[in-house]
Automatic annotation (TrEMBL):
N6-(pyridoxal phosphate)lysine carried by residues: K46
Family from the record: Belongs to the pyridoxal phosphate-binding protein YggS/PROSC family.
Native organism: Leifsonia soli
Cofactor: pyridoxal 5'-phosphate
CDD domains: PLPDE_III_YBL036c_like
Record domain Alanine racemase N-terminal: where: 21-234
Function in brief: Pyridoxal 5'-phosphate (PLP)-binding protein, which is involved in PLP homeostasis.
Alphabetical list of InterPro entries matching this protein: Ala_racemase_N, PLP-binding_barrel, PyrdxlP_homeostasis
GO molecular function: pyridoxal phosphate binding
Keyword Ribosomal protein: no
Name of the protein: Pyridoxal phosphate homeostasis protein
Pfam families linked to this entry: Ala_racemase_N
Keywords, sorted A to Z: Pyridoxal phosphate
Domain of life: Bacteria
Length: 237
């Protein structure tokens, strides 16, 4: 968006990208007849250093997202002095669930019974409730993460029966090769099915850098936006 050569704190590329996305989100909300205040923008900071998260916090960002447990755990520890809400948005191994619970306020990727059981509070534990989304797989590829459409209701019921978990709603990633608007209509329909079991679970976590406008039009409440704000991710080696 900008290749400014004089990055001052008032107009750095990061500041400008954040402002552009905030404006884009507000515009898309109004275009959909919704209030921007209904939307939570989570800045996905995976692969970026903790220092970038600190810059974002200085610019007013409170919700940050990560998709790898170890990286998230390290950053959350390093930035414990900031009042951030950590959202875990990636695939989570059941054996890491207890640890993720300690730093994450919200897990967006609950997609199987074993993970629900691992995240559930144990008897006598004083942990506060953990907010979760049930992730829906919009592809036919189980490796993409998410529960298959036909298994959505049993998983939702399992979450509702688990101690210490609070179901916010449904989460999804639009598949490559499908119009995002169409994919998000499927998510909206799934959200209706979730609400018929859990009327309070009205949230929809959907929309990334390339498709947040379509997601907002389809009712998304939680946007997970990375590169449009952070810039390109450093190469993974
Ligand atoms: C990386 C990631 C995002 C953000 O993607 P961008 O295209 O960089 O906005 C959102 N959701 C999940 C699950 C991710 O892994």
């Amino acid at each position: 968006m900008t290749t400014s050569t004089s990055p001052t704190s008032s107009s750095s590329p990061l500041t400008e990208r954040l402002a552009a996305v905030r404006e884009g989100v507000a515009d898309a909300a109004r275009a959909a007849g919704r209030s921007p205040a209904e939307l939570t923008t989570i800045v996905v900071t995976k692969f970026h250093p903790a220092s970038l998260v600190r810059e974002l916090a200085a610019l007013g960002v409170r919700d940050v997202g990560e998709n790898r447990h170890q990286e998230a755990q390290e950053k959350a520890a390093e930035l414990a002095d900031l009042d951030l809400t950590w959202h875990f948005v990636g695939q989570l191994q059941s054996k890491k669930a207890r640890q993720a619970r300690r730093y994450a306020s919200v897990i967006h990727s609950v997609d199987r019974f074993s993970l629900v059981d691992a995240l559930a509070a144990r008897e006598g534990e004083g942990d506060s409730d953990l907010d979760v989304f049930v992730q829906l797989n919009l592809t036919d590829d189980p490796a993409r993460g998410g529960v298959a459409d036909r298994d959505l209701e049993p998983l939702v019921e399992h979450v509702l029966a688990a101690p210490g978990l609070h179901l916010l709603g449904v989460m999804a990633v639009a598949p490559l090769g499908e119009e995002p608007a169409r994919a998000f209509e499927r998510v909206r329909a799934a959200s209706g099915r979730v609400r018929s079991l859990a009327p309070e679970a009205t949230s929809i976590s959907a929309g990334m850098s390339q498709d947040y406008r379509e997601a907002i039009a389809a009712g998304a409440t939680h946007l997970r936006i990375g590169t449009a704000i952070t810039g390109n991710r450093p190469e993974l080696r």
